[in-house]
Specification:
Blueprint lengths: L1 H9 L33 H23 L2 H22 L11 H9 L5 H17 L11 H10 L3 H9 L7 H5 L34 H9 L2 E3 L8 E4 L9 E8 L2 E9 L3 E8 L4 E7 L6 E3 L2 E2 L6 E7 L2 E6 L2 E8 L1
Parallel strand pairs: 2-6
Antiparallel strand pairs: 1-2, 3-4, 4-5, 5-11, 6-10, 7-8, 7-11, 9-10
Helix pairs in contact: 1-2, 2-3, 2-4, 4-5, 4-6, 6-7, 6-9
C-alpha cells in the first residue's frame, strides 16, 4: 500500500498527480453529436487527485490498526498536502469545481476533498446538475459507485431514489426495460432504436454500474458495518424508506451466519423484520417518531427485555440487540 502511494507521490508535482496515462471516468454519459456541451467530461487529473487522497487515507487507517504511529503521522501530513493541492488546482474560492460534472462533485464529496464549510454547497451543485439532465445520472465507472451514497450522506435520499427508479437512458432501469437480465458495460449497450453500441467493446455482463447494489444493501435495506468492528461482528441496520417503494428486503451471509433486513409499508404501519446472526450484536434504527409507536412481536417495545432502547435519533428510534429474529411494527 505504501509503495502504491509512493508511486503516486513520485509522479506528482507539488503534490498534484497530474501526469501519466489515466482512463478517467470510463464510459460516462456523452450524447452523440454533442453540440451544446452536455457530455459529462471530468478532468482526468482531478479524478486522479481524489484517488490519491483516498489511497493515502486507507494507508493512514491501516497504520492505525497496526499501531504504526510514525506512518500515521507521515501519511496524515501527506494527505493534507494532497487535499490542499486539490483545492488550489481544481476548486474556486466559492467551492465550484473546474469540472462541473456529477463525477467531479461526487468524488470530491465522497473523499472529503473540500473544506467542511463548502461541502453542503457542493452537494447542492451536484443535485442541480442531476436535475439539469432531467433527473438522470451522467457518471461513468468511477463516479457511479459513490453517487447515491453521497446523495444520502448529504440528505438527498429522494434524489438518490429518483435516480434508482429512473427508466429512461441513462439509468439503471433503462437496460431492464430493454430486456437486460445482467448489468451492461455501457448505459446504452442497446440503443433506444434497438441498434447496438460499438461491437468492439459492448459487454452485456459487466460489474461496474452494478455498484448501486452496495447502496441498496447499505441504505435501502440498511445493512451496514461499523468501521471499528469489521466482519459484521457489530452490525448497523438503518433503512432509508421512500414512498415510491412499498417493500424491500436483503440478506447477507456473514462469517457468523445470515443477517437479514426487510421492510414493508402499508397505509397504517411499517413492518420491519430483522435477523441478527449468532455471536454478533446490532444497532437497529427503527423508522419511527416515538418509541410508543413501536411494538416487537406483538409486545410493547419498552417491556422487551432483549432490546435496549437508546432514544430518538433523527427520524429513527435507536435500539440495540443481540442475535435473534426481531419483528417490529411501527404505527404511522
Amino acid at each position: 500500500m505504501k509503495a502504491w502511494v509512493g508511486f503516486m507521490e513520485r509522479n506528482s508535482t507539488n503534490y498534484l498527480w497530474n501526469k501519466g496515462f489515466h482512463f478517467g471516468d470510463w464510459l460516462f454519459y456523452r450524447p452523440f453529436d454533442d453540440n451544446d456541451g452536455r457530455s459529462a467530461v471530468t478532468d482526468k487529473y482531478l479524478i486522479a487527485q481524489c484517488f490519491f487522497a483516498h489511497s493515502t487515507e486507507l494507508v493512514i487507517k491501516t497504520a492505525n490498526v497496526l499501531g504504526k504511529q510514525d506512518d500515521v503521522a507521515k501519511y496524515s501530513a501527506l494527505l493534507k498536502n494532497v487535499k490542499d493541492a486539490f483545492m488550489k488546482e481544481y476548486m474556486t474560492a466559492n467551492g465550484r469545481l473546474v469540472s462541473s460534472t456529477q463525477t467531479a462533485y461526487v468524488l470530491a464529496l465522497n473523499f472529503d476533498m473540500l473544506p467542511e464549510n463548502l461541502r453542503a454547497y457542493a452537494a447542492e451543485k451536484l443535485v442541480e446538475n442531476i436535475k439539469s439532465y432531467g433527473n438522470h445520472l451522467t457518471t461513468g465507472f468511477l463516479g457511479t459507485p459513490y453517487l447515491c451514497h453521497v446523495l444520502t450522506r448529504f440528505g438527498y435520499d429522494d434524489v438518490a431514489y429518483t435516480l434508482l427508479l429512473q427508466e429512461t437512458y441513462p439509468s439503471w432501469l433503462y437496460p431492464v426495460k430493454m430486456g437486460a437480465t445482467t448489468i451492461w458495460e455501457r448505459w446504452d449497450g442497446i440503443k433506444p432504436d434497438g441498434t447496438f453500441q460499438t461491437p468492439g467493446m459492448n459487454s452485456f455482463n459487466h460489474y461496474a454500474y452494478g455498484a448501486i447494489g452496495d447502496w441498496m444493501y447499505r441504505v435501502v435495506t440498511g445493512i451496514d458495518t461499523e468501521e471499528s468492528s469489521p466482519g459484521y461482528k457489530s452490525i448497523v441496520i438503518k433503512p432509508h424508506l421512500d414512498a415510491r417503494i412499498t417493500q424491500a428486503s436483503s440478506e447477507y451471509k456473514t462469517g457468523y451466519g445470515l443477517v437479514k433486513s426487510s421492510w414493508r409499508t402499508t397505509e397504517q404501519t411499517i413492518n420491519f423484520d430483522i435477523e441478527v446472526p449468532a455471536n454478533t450484536k446490532a444497532t437497529i434504527y427503527v423508522p419511527a417518531t416515538a418509541a410508543e409507536n413501536i411494538s416487537e412481536s406483538g409486545r410493547v417495545l419498552s417491556i422487551v427485555k432483549e432490546i435496549s432502547v437508546k432514544g430518538k435519533e433523527g427520524n429513527y428510534i435507536k435500539v440495540e440487540v443481540g442475535s435473534g429474529k426481531f419483528s417490529f411494527v411501527v404505527k404511522k
